[in-house]
Write a structure and sequence with these properties.
Blueprint: E1 2-5, E2 17-21, E3 24-28, E4 55-57, H1 63-66, H2 69-75, E5 80-84, H3 85-88, H4 91-109, H5 119-125, E6 129-132, E7 138-139, E8 154-159, E9 167-172, E10 177-180, E11 204-208, H6 222-238, E12 243-246, H7 252-265, E13 274-276, H8 278-289, H9 303-306, E14 309-311, E15 327-330, H10 340-348, E16 355-358, H11 367-373, E17 379-383, E18 387-390, E19 394-397, H12 406-416, E20 420-424, H13 428-441, E21 446-448, E22 455-457
Parallel strand pairs: 3-4, 4-5, 5-6, 10-11, 11-20, 12-15, 12-16, 13-14, 13-15, 16-19, 20-21
Antiparallel strand pairs: 1-2, 1-22, 2-3, 7-8, 8-9, 9-10, 17-18
Bound molecules: zinc ion (2 copies).
Amino acid sequence: MKITNLNPDTDIGASAWAVEIEGHRLLMDAGIHPKREGRASLPLFDLVKKEPMDAIAISHCHHDHVGALPVALRHFPQAHVLMSELSYFLVERVLHNSVNVMKQQRDELGIKDYPLFSHDEVDDIAPLFQGFRYNREVDWAAFHKSRAGAFSPTLEFHDAGHTLGSAGIMVRGQKETLFYTGDVCFHDQTILKSARFDGIKADVLIMETTRGNRELPPGFSREKEIKRLSQAIQQVLNRKGSILIPTFALGRTQEILALLAILMSKGKLNSQPVYIGGLGRVFSEIYDLESHRTHRQHPNLQLHEALNLVVLEKGQAEKMKLGGGRLFVTTAGMMSEHTASHDLALRMIGDKSQAIFFVGYTDPNTPGGCLRAAKHGETFVFSPSGGEVTRCCEIEDFDLTAHANRDEMLDFVGRVGPRTVLLSHGGDDSRDWFETQIHARYPSVKVIQPKPGQRVEA
Ligand SMILES: [Zn+2]
Ligand SMILES: [Zn+2]
């Protein structure tokens, strides 16, 4: 089979893969690069625009996997769009939110390309979307009448345990098979249970490598991190400081809210309001609504009932009193400008009674990344609009990742038993670690790190 990496960059970037298998064509993911602006953030669709796709399959609804879907459909208007049933409930909200964010960035940062697509366009393409249960085989190429009767490769979504609706994608042809992990988590989170990738075998494996550059410290456990977090929160509240936990609206926010709800119900944290953003509330409601369809823990935990959730109004973050001990779980995770996280952090950084706790990935070149790297008492530039600040507040990191650890990914390669592995969705150091380890442990497996735009015969 032929596989083209359409990610415009070598790092995590924007996920998009063009697959040609036994005469049929499939696009897997159509993401947006979170650090690039305008059209430069799009996958390299031009390389394959003359090769019509029979279908587009989406692994999950994070922007780096789905944010360019309307643009992909301009190139491949006849393609059906397949995703898990749970992603189907999220995808339109995610894309409409993208339009809002892009319009805001056009106005505030003067990025003329934005928005890359409109609300109307999202509405127009929505009828092409189809949601499927996990572990159900779909004849994706047979959707087209011209191909009816001929053999169709199949596609099957497998629960990836990373965020609501996340899936690994199994593609089966007559002669060969491909498995794409998407983003995957092999341990239970507070809400979502671990990936169900049991028994998966494939000739070709495309895998994420997010944590390839990260070795777990000796004695690490998620339970200990949670205990450390709850004690840290209580200490800040005791001194009447406020706590900001910057998170992404989909997935991370709900996991943190569930954790707070459980800590409060056990009396390990005093009950009090939790301030969140509007989009965080939208996705929290979908988590609640779909709780019994989801492979999860605490299926009866309804976030909106268990917690006193208060949505921050626009501009409220700049005015609220912070002295009485408040809890904020707000977007954006990397504290980009013009977000509640950014504006709250700006008020908290210089105040020693306040605390900012990081629970997920921050790119070093974002305001969140700069703050995380700043030492106590250090003066640094937080952001262009925030300017120079001196860090006096408490900053802590808690490792509550929604990605598999590297040793688990390496074991997974052995279970799948592929002839070829394609490494993606990670920095150079992460991919290199996997390449070296796979060569050492599974010497017969061919390892490829496809460059941006590179087509490989896998
Ligand atoms: Zn993701
Ligand atoms: Zn991702």
